Every structure is written in structure tokens, then in C-alpha cells.
């Protein structure tokens, strides 16, 4: 793993896509694939092979607050990135208690990513051609 000088390994749980075909095509077309990133249609039960886990999305994966907390407790040496759909107010769908479980909240709107959290605010413009 990354601690032993190896590149970090990740899993992208592409629950939102509902199938790998579209995502695989997009990755190939954009040339952004990485051998250390596994793409999965769901969140694997065994996360021991991964350093970071991306869940897209929390609502499609039926993760409630308790499930998120259990994942973090069961896998304390892992890094989690949870993707949420938001309301028109920019808050995660469902309970706002999710906000207390994250270190950084990044809201992306119109190509601008704005971050807030315990590490301070930040902003980055993201554009794709």
C-alpha cells in the first residue's frame, strides 16, 4: 500500500452510473484510466486492498448516516470520498447530519468547485473541453 512506498490503490464505486459501459467508454475517451483505480458497480464488502474509496453516490448506494459511520469505524485506515446529490440550497440530500461526518465539503456548480470545512475555505475553477 501507499505506506510501503507503493502507489495508493483506490476503488470508485460507480453506483450512480448503473453500469460500467458508459463510464468505461468515458475513461477510455478521455484517457484518464489508472491501473491503481478499480471501477466497481457497487461498494465492495472487503476494502482491505484499497487506500481510498469513492462512493458515487451516497443516495444511490442507500447509505444512511449510520452506514457511513460504520464504514469509517470498520476501516479507520482508509480515506473515504462520499459524493452527494444536493438540494437547490447546495446541501446534501437527506439529513444535514452528513455535514458533520466530512472533513471537507466541496460544492461544484457551473464548473467552479468551492470547498469549505475544518481546513478552511477554498475555490478552484474546473473546466472540461
Note the topology.
Blueprint: E1 10-14, H1 20-30, E2 37-40, E3 52-56, H2 65-74, E4 79-83, E5 104-109, E6 112-117, E7 122-125
Parallel strand pairs: 1-2, 1-3, 3-4
Antiparallel strand pairs: 5-6, 6-7
Features:
129 residues; four-stranded parallel β-sheet; three-stranded antiparallel β-sheet; 16% helix
Biggest sheet strand order reads 2-1-3-4
Oligomer status: single chain
Compute the number of helices.
2
Strand content: 25-35%
Order of helices and strands: EHEEHEEEE
> What's the count of strands?
7
The helix-and-strand class reads alpha/beta
Shape annotation? globular
Percent helix:
10-25%
Q: What is the alpha-carbon Rg in Å?
A: 15 Å
Task: Describe the largest sheet.
Answer: 4 strands, parallel
Q: Give the N-to-C terminal Cα separation.
A: 34 Å
Please give a structural write-up.
This protein is of the alpha/beta class. 16% of the residues lie in helices and 27% in strands. The protein has two helices and seven strands; from the N terminus they run βαββαββββ. It has helices at residues 20-30, 65-74, and strands at 10-14, 37-40, 52-56, 79-83, 104-109, 112-117, 122-125. The strands form two sheets. It has a four-stranded parallel β-sheet with strand order 2-1-3-4, covered by helices on one side. The longest helix has 11 residues, at 20-30. The chain is globular, with a radius of gyration of 15 Å. The mean pLDDT is 78.
Amino acid at each position: 500500500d501507499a505506506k510501503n512506498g507503493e502507489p495508493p490503490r483506490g476503488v470508485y464505486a460507480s453506483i450512480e452510473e448503473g453500469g460500467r459501459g458508459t463510464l468505461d467508454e468515458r475513461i477510455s475517451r478521455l484517457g484518464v484510466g489508472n491501473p491503481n483505480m478499480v471501477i466497481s458497480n457497487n461498494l465492495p464488502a472487503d476494502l482491505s486492498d484499497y487506500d481510498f474509496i469513492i462512493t458515487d453516490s451516497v443516495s444511490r448506494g442507500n447509505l444512511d448516516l449510520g452506514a457511513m459511520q460504520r464504514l469509517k469505524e470498520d476501516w479507520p485506515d482508509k480515506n473515504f470520498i462520499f459524493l452527494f446529490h444536493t438540494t437547490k440550497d447546495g446541501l446534501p440530500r437527506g439529513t444535514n447530519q452528513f455535514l458533520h461526518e466530512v472533513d471537507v465539503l466541496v460544492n461544484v456548480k457551473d464548473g467552479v468547485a468551492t470547498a469549505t470545512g475544518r481546513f478552511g475555505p477554498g475555490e478552484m475553477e474546473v473546466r472540461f473541453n
